[in-house]
Design brief:
The complex is a heterodimer of chains A (590) and B (414). Helices cover 47% and strands 20% of the residues of chain A. With 590 residues, chain A is an alpha/beta fold. In chain A, the strands form 4 sheets. An 8-stranded mixed beta barrel of chain A has the order 13-14-16-17-18-19-20-21, surrounded by 5 helices. Chain A has a 5-stranded antiparallel β-sheet with strand order 2-1-5-4-3, sandwiched between helices. The chains are: A alpha/beta (590), B alpha/beta (414). The interface between A and B is medium-sized, with 29 and 24 residues.
């Protein structure tokens, strides 16, 4: 702590000391005055003046005085040494130690050397003490400023570094990449590369050995990565088990590949963690500044894409980002921009796929599906934009739009096409939407303003909504149900499909995944599975919708098994509203 | 509503053994007689089968410049001539159209193989100087839709598929989707086939796919009959003008019917034999129904593939029962290949044209030559005599060698 307290002294400007020393020398008519500071037991002179206020030629002090000064400082008290008449010829000396206020540690002393025949009066001592006090106040100020600066530096370090591995974090990595890009722009020959590294099977380590071991592994990997790199390179933890490496100033692209190879070899050695010998490997994507540049986000994403290709090619390898991927990436970037506009301009339309009551053979309702009507590309398939919307969070405004639109539409149909049981509308709810704190209010508002019968609104959720925090999910679902709507479990049978869901969750209906239904007529196992799911659902009072019904025999089998509803291409593909209206007017029966 | 594109049939061109042009085809149907005869085009005696449905009374020069007829073979003549008839029938004025929004999709099983066979003979007997210099550009399947594009200057989506006996249906289905999905506003679609050359014909005799009822050609093609013994080869073409409904109405075009659904599948089983349980044939129909959002119970009439081979007709019956379940018994089904034989890649298009006309004329053509019921074929096949009937929804099937299955749903336009 003491040494910490003293480091700020290095930043105190020399003039602060010199001013005091000069004043002391001139006001006391001393032959010499100087300030010395102590750090780690070593005394340093910070300003030395003679009577005329002229700086002394050197910063040396006499050997004898040095000892006296050191003693005085060590004692922490004012030392008054009068002239020794007829003695050694040593000069009278006054040493007044000083410290910063509110801190007793002695930082140094103001020393005044008189003429040999001089004694020190009380007034002399008081004058010097006054000067020291001034100096102390000033040092306090410096110390406070210094502390604040230190804190800032520390804060900057923590905001730019990952606390676990102490590596730079994503923000700093972006900054450095940005700088590298700027350099590459200025100097055409400047070549650099970014490596995007993702550990293979890290989740397995985390899940099987615990987060503690997982964290240790990340630290160990960080140290190994550092060892594989030059000091001027940057290795950063970008999040989770992802690392970014910036190789600035490489000669040829192959250099980056060599580094990647070195990293792969280094990671191939097992890591000893809390007594476990853990084997790890990584997939690495490489992008060089000659192939792709522009903005850091784009370069990092490009490397990320190459990394995914490495994963796809079998992991524990590296892949270079190439021109073809560049084109893909540009297209993706464009699509993302377009999607943002689409959200603002509401370029979405709703299509509806009929859900048929297998009991009556008539249309019981619909599942609403969002379609994007791109101004130039026409109808974009959902798979091309839904995952992107999920990633970027644009799914929230989109999800809200489709819910409002579907409710509005079905509300209108409920008026025109009156049925004993009003037409139902299923709307998908994504994980991100489910996490919205004001979800219930949003939906309640939509139900209220569109006038849809709340009981005919079916929210279709997937297991991923529940996984992780079932209790919370139950609370949210119960809140939603209190509005009056129903909860459907989508894609049932594909995930964990825990039977406890059926009993614990406040759901009303399950949608049996198409993969079972579509093969139930050819594969006995699938048939038996569907039968069992239906039996189970019925035993806990849940209704069922069979998804992906494609053939008449499937329809007949499902009907015989007592499945309540069916949906699929046998009945209809998703249709635009006008065609649904025509369908409702014809009112076909299957 | 802007995002809703419906597709209607506004023109029909046909070249068949029972009649040429829309009017000829319809009159031929009303006559309820088979056009199958002993082959006159070449000597069929080396082969087991001696009958075919030949197109007589067709002169390509009536439909294009003489000079141009020499650049095309018979299959090319059929393609361009049928397209010209259809365009004329639809009263499309191409000069005023944005022809980038008009495309052509055709189907042909064999393309110019027959003509290639003939030229092959020239090469072996008289050498290369006696080979038609345009041979290379005549025989490839794509010559069908490409010559249509050139003849009429239509620059939209263009392809010719070669999916054997289903190719005409596939061309119409794919063309229908081009319009529905907004890639084109008008599609010239259909099929053309000119296989009546000795070896091309004989190849099918060698695999014993064709009828050997050589003593009575007029009854050789007898779909669903107990005594059927194989198909009878025909030739010809049919082209439909498919058009986006709103613009067809706007220009006051004649509208025969609406195409509402299309589905296809492959047996993935055998090159000639159909998958015995008919599941994939059924699946194609189910897909077409789903595509149209029409319930099986809404279908009134099925124009069957009914090729008159022992395996097809019983399997097709099985497939129909799979799809229609109980309602199969009140369904009216007919196979029209008894009239004009099996024109392979043109058949699906000819039959789509027949369905459109049946909807317009309120008359269902019979299955000619169906004399004795087969135990495995126990549906209402409209035997021998056609019926006055106002139907709403029609399915037309085409199943082909290679295991290909395709179906269209066509409905009365309203």
């Amino acid at each position: 702590m003491l040494s910490d307290r003293q480091t700020f002294l290095d930043n105190v400007p020399r003039e602060s000391f010199e001013r005091v020393a000069r004043l002391a020398a001139s006001s006391l008519q001393a032959s010499l005055a100087f300030v010395c500071t102590v750090r780690d037991g070593r005394v340093a002179v910070r300003g030395k003046f003679d009577t005329t206020g002229t700086p002394a030629a050197d910063d040396e002090i006499a050997e004898l005085d040095r000892v006296r000064v050191a003693d005085a400082i060590a004692s922490g008290r004012v030392a008054l040494i009068h002239s020794e008449r007829g003695g050694s010829g040593a000069s009278p000396l006054i040493v007044v130690p000083f410290s910063a206020e509110q801190d007793s540690a002695v930082l140094g002393a103001l020393c005044v050397v008189g003429a040999t025949e001089r004694d020190w009066s009380d007034r002399d001592v008081a004058a010097i003490a006054g000067l020291v006090e001034t100096l102390s106040s000033e040092l306090t100020l410096h110390s406070t400023i210094y502390d604040r600066k230190e804190e800032e530096v520390k804060l900057r370090h923590t905001t730019l570094h990952d606390p676990l591995t102490e590596l730079p974090n994503r923000t700093l990595f972006m900054q450095r990449t940005d700088q590298a890009i700027a350099r590459a722009k200025r100097y055409p020959d400047h070549l650099f590369a970014i490596l995007f590294l993702d550990l293979d099977r890290f989740k397995v380590v985390n899940d099987s050995l615990g987060h503690q071991v997982g964290d240790e592994l990340l630290v160990a990997v960080a140290r190994r990565l550092e060892k594989c790199l030059r000091t001027e390179d940057t290795v950063a933890r970008l999040g989770g088990d992802e690392f970014g490496i910036l190789l600035d100033r490489i000669r040829v692209v192959a250099d980056a590949a060599r580094v990647a190879q070195r990293i792969l070899m280094s990671l191939a050695e097992p890591v000893n963690l809390s007594g476990y010998e853990v084997y790890t490997s990584a997939s690495i994507g490489i992008v060089d500044s000659a192939t792709a540049h522009g903005i850091p986000e784009y370069m990092i994403r490009s490397a990320d894409m190459a990394m995914y290709r490495a994963k796809g090619a079998g992991k524990a390898r590296y892949e270079m980002f190439d021109r073809a991927m560049h084109a893909d990436a540009l297209a993706r970037l464009q699509l993302e921009t377009d999607l943002r506009h689409a959200v603002q301009r509401e370029e979405f339309i709703a299509h509806y796929q009929p859900v048929v009551s297998l009991e009556t053979g008539q249309i019981a309702g619909f599942e609403a599906l969002i379609r994007w009507k791109h101004p130039e590309r026409g109808l974009v398939p959902p798979n091309d934009f839904i995952p992107m919307a999920e990633e970027t969070g644009m799914i929230l405004p989109m999800g809200q739009w489709i819910m409002r639109e579907a409710c509005r539409q079905v509300s209108a149909w409920q008026q025109t096409f009156r049925r004993a049981e009003p037409l139902a509308i299923g709307v998908n709810l994504s994980v991100k939407q489910f996490a919205q704190p004001d979800l219930k209010q949003l939906i309640a508002d939509i139900v209220e303003t569109t006038g849809v019968h709340p009981n005919s609104l079916k929210l279709e959720i997937t297991e991923s909504v529940i996984v992780g925090n079932t209790d919370h999910a139950i609370t949210v679902l119960e809140g939603l149900k209190s509005i009056g709507l129903e909860i459907y479990m989508d894609d049932f049978g594909t995930g964990y499909s825990s039977l406890s869901y059926l009993t614990h969750l406040p759901i009303d209906c399950i949608k049996i995944d198409r993969s079972f239904v579509s093969q139930m007529e050819t594969k006995d196992r699938h048939f038996q599975l569907v039968r069992t799911i239906l039996t189970l659902a019925r035993s806990v009072n849940l209704r069922s919708v069979a998804e992906g019904v494609e053939s008449t025999p499937q329809l007949l089998a499902l009907r015989k098994l007592g499945c309540e509803f069916g949906q699929g291409y046998l009945f209809s593909r998703p249709l635009p509203p006008a065609e649904i209206e025509e369908l409702l007017a014809r009112n076909p029966s299957w | 509503m802007q995002d809703r594109r419906r597709v209607v049939i506004t023109g029909i061109g046909a070249i068949t053994a029972i009649g040429v042009e829309r009017q000829g085809l319809w009159e031929g149907l009303l006559a309820q007689r088979s056009a199958v005869r002993g082959i006159t085009r070449f000597d069929p005696t080396p082969f087991r089968s001696h009958s075919a449905a030949e197109v007589a009374n067709f002169d390509a020069g009536d439909f294009m410049e003489r000079k141009r007829t020499r650049r095309l073979d018979r299959f090319g003549h059929f393609s361009v001539a049928a397209a010209k008839m259809a365009i004329g029938d639809s009263s499309l004025n191409l000069a005023e159209e944005n022809r980038e929004r008009i495309g052509a999709m055709m189907g042909t099983a064999l393309g110019g193989v027959g003509y290639a066979e003939e030229q092959c003979g020239h090469y072996y007997t008289k050498g290369v100087k006696d080979v038609d210099p345009a041979l290379a550009l005549m025989v490839f399947g794509g010559a069908s839709s490409c010559n249509i594009a050139i003849e009429f200057g239509v620059q939209g989506p263009n392809s010719t598929n070669a999916m054997s006996c289903a190719s005409g249906t596939i061309a119409i289905g794919d063309g229908f989707r081009q319009i529905r999905d907004g890639y084109a506003d008008v599609m010239i679609c259909g099929g053309a086939e000119a296989p009546l050359w000795p070896l091309t014909f004989g190849a099918f005799a060698i695999i014993r796919a064709m009828s050997t009822r050589n003593d009575d050609p007029g009854t050789a093609s007898r779909p669903f009959d107990r005594d059927r013994d194989g198909f009878v080869m025909g030739e010809g073409a049919a082209v439909l003008i498919l058009e986006e409904r709103a613009r067809a109405i706007a220009r006051g075009a004649p509208i025969y019917a609406e195409v509402v659904g299309y589905g296809m599948s492959n047996d993935a089983y055998h090159m000639t034999a159909p998958l015995p349980d008919g599941t994939q044939a059924a699946r194609a129909v189910e897909r077409a129904l789903g595509d149209a959002a029409v319930g099986a119970g809404e279908i009134d009439y099925v124009n069957a593939h009914g090729s008159s081979t022992p395996l097809n007709d019983s399997t097709e019956t099985l497939a129909i029962k799979r799809v229609f379940g109980e309602s199969a018994q009140r369904l009216q089904v007919s196979g029209t290949k008894g009239y004009y034989g099996h024109a392979l890649g043109a058949s699906g298009a000819i039959e789509a044209a027949i369905c459109a006309l049946a909807l317009q004329q309120d008359w269902l053509p019979p299955t000619v030559n169906l004399q004795t019921a087969d135990d495995a074929c126990d549906l209402d096949y409209i035997p021998r005599t056609g019926r006055k009937a106002r139907v709403e929804h029609i399915v037309t099937n085409s199943f082909g060698f290679g295991g290909i299955n395709a179906a269209l749903v066509i409905r009365r336009h309203s």
